[in-house]
Amino acid sequence: MRDDLQDVVDEAARLLGAPATLEDRDFTLLAFAAHPLDDAGTAMDAVRTRSILGRGSTPATRRWFEDLGIARATGPLRTPADPDAGILTRLLLPVRHRGRTLGYLWLLDGGRTDPADDGDPALAAAVDLAARAGELLARRREDDDAGAALAALLGGPAADGERAVPLLAARFAGAAVALVALRPAGDPPPGWRPAAGAAVVGEEVALAVRLPRSADLRPALAAAEATLSRLPAGATAGVAEPATAVPDLPARWAQARTAAAVAAVAPRLGPVASWPALGGWRTAAALAAPDPVVVPLLAEPALAATAEAYLDAAGSVARTSAVLGIHRQTLYSRLGRITALTGLDLADGDTRLLVHASLRRARLA
Q: Of 103, 104, 268, 289, which residue is least crowded by CB atoms under 10 Å?
């Protein structure tokens, strides 16, 4: 959306041949279009300089412009200059959507454009651009509200979560939703921000993706992959089962987080893993902790890795030896040491299940 707003500002500046600045209703800078200074240096004034350098305006500047009636303007408006304050005349195009003022598109045109000239095609096109900016800002506000509601539902107090349910229900309008959990690896790159409607929940990012068909997770998987493509290597994502009711989302969030955690430790399933594809990892994740009988094995990483590879291979000595790159006799020796260390016989089915799930649970921790 930031790029779309920048495009609006660049095009408005081109149409009217003037520096352009887009601010929201609170005078926070959203985008600006550079423009060369003329011989008198009139492409900049104190207000534009402060807005660009400080990403906003002072309360005094805001009051000065609001006293001119800009918040009530429904069409192009000329604001006067104030030489004593270092303010040049401006053309204001109010940024509105459905009768509400959401921001301001300013042009330092030196007074060349008549705001009342209905026959000026460049002005008419710029007014259309301001309306486009209004649509974008309205959508961003909706996305921000949805992100805040999602954060409240997944990670906030119960009362906040209950209040968030109607807003999210209205946003998804009965469609199936898949939650994506994103686990960044280190700090995100400068300028990175989560997708529209996303929420930061603890150290993870939650994204709710509307599904065109209730059982089709492909849109959610694609959204997760697109997000990861903009992050440093090592980030992973998990996708939960579809939910058809907003109150089900917290449980789906647990699924998505588990899938993202598994993707981080099981490369064959990552970097994006879905809950339905986790298989036995779901059983491991359900354990509160590894079984105590496996704890001695966890203290011997080489033996733990051998046991897990052996169990992944369904007890096949040939496949385990190939995966680990060791001789069969070395494998037999390690299996004997595992039994001596833990008292567990990996030839027993129940023991295999216990050890396999515990070893995987330990890796998730």
A: 268
